Amino acid sequence: MAAPTCRAPRVWVQFSRKRVGSLLTTVSKPFCSAAAASRPLDAQRLAERLRAQKQEQKTKRVPVPTNPVQRRVQELVQFTKQLQRVHPNVLAKALSRGIVHQDSDLVVINKPYGLPVHGGPGVQLCISDVLPILAKMLHGHKAEPLHLCHRLDKETTGVMVLARDKEVAHQVQELFRTRQVAKKYWAITVHVPVPSAGVVDIPITEKEVQGQQQHHKMALTPSYRMDSGKMVRVRTSRNAHVAVTQYQVLSSTLSSALLELQPVTGVKHQLRVHLSFGLDCPILGDHKYSDWNRLAPQKLSVGTLKKLGLPQSKARHIPLHLHARQLILPALGSRREELSLVCKLPRYFVHSLSRLGLKMPSQDQNGDQEAGRLGAQ
């Protein structure tokens, strides 16, 4: 009886020319031989080598540019690196490292910059997408997905509350809706508000802007206007929302300030609109609301640009400096006391404070500066 013959089909495996050195690698192996089956395929070895090279590239430090402007731009890009294009498991792991509080009802995270909460046009990955993965990481494979209790803008960082079940989520959402949650934000502004503390109580609505580029923005709709030197009451728009913001200057220089903001209401982009159009103090890095008619990078003074180490042409890299610093939740469920949740500032925020000569309150200074120092290592 003739010995069985075995065919040796060709397997074509395509790899990147940059990483492997050859666009196509041909592997020819007899599959009928037990010895051949026990040996790893060339493709497997190449894949392992590729993974090793990829890991090695990750561990390599990016060279620091000698040009100070390029170095500053690299800092900002690195500090504000978005997490939308990573694998969902990687994003969930990053969020788990930012947990500031966890109990039987709630999980509170420090939301990163540039990460949307909900999906939408052009959004590849958002926080709501990875809540089932995050729940399994924290509470096991049988855990119910976490639930959003409120939202923050994509560019805003800071305290974000998640609930472990729907009932608790609805209770927290009701606390937000009925304004029982105390909220404190920190922002760096381009100008200094006068007076140094006060309340902005101006309704807000969404309007279409007829400028160089047609777009929509939230806008102020004051109840009064000046007419021939007299104050005249204006009929309120049906679409206007009551918007009230309390503010206080924590630190200031001639051209910039660190503000603590307490929004009484929760209208879309309320803080940004009240600061920019109500107080003429736009938030640093607010490229949307610094100018009403244009959608362009924020215009900054020569002195501010010099302190930040950037020319105006690179101002587009400056991120929005708005941080949800603290939430105070009233008693809920089995918890009989209020819960104060505080998130440390992101690294780019701490660096900007230092460059602009702004100081944090003494009780907060050590923790946030340590966070910035560790993050920069």
TrEMBL record:
Keywords noted in UniProt: Isomerase, Mitochondrion, Transit peptide
Keyword Transit peptide annotated: yes
Database matches in Pfam families: PseudoU_synth_2 (PF00849)
An annotated GO BP: pseudouridine synthesis
Ribonucleoprotein among keywords: no
SUPFAM superfamilies to which the protein is assigned, alphabetical: Pseudouridine synthase (SSF55120)
GO cellular component: mitochondrion
Reaction equations catalysed: uridine in 5S rRNA = pseudouridine in 5S rRNA; a uridine in tRNA = a pseudouridine in tRNA; a uridine in mRNA = a pseudouridine in mRNA
MF terms in GO: pseudouridine synthase activity; RNA binding
Pseudouridine synthase RsuA/RluA-like domain location: 105-276
Chain's role: Catalyzes uridine to pseudouridine isomerization (pseudouridylation) of different mitochondrial RNA substrates. Acts on position 1397 in 16S mitochondrial ribosomal RNA (16S mt-rRNA). This modification is required for the assembly of 16S mt-rRNA into a functional mitochondrial ribosome. As a component of a functional protein-RNA module, consisting of RCC1L, NGRN, RPUSD3, RPUSD4, TRUB2, FASTKD2 and 16S mt-rRNA, controls 16S mt-rRNA abundance and is required for intra-mitochondrial translation. Acts on position 39 in mitochondrial tRNA(Phe).
Family of the protein in this entry: Belongs to the pseudouridine synthase RluA family.
Subunit: Interacts with 16S mt-rRNA, mt-tRNA(Phe) and mt-tRNA(Met). Forms a regulatory protein-RNA complex, consisting of RCC1L, NGRN, RPUSD3, RPUSD4, TRUB2, FASTKD2 and 16S mt-rRNA.
Protein name: Pseudouridylate synthase RPUSD4, mitochondrial
Organism for this UniProt entry: Hipposideros armiger
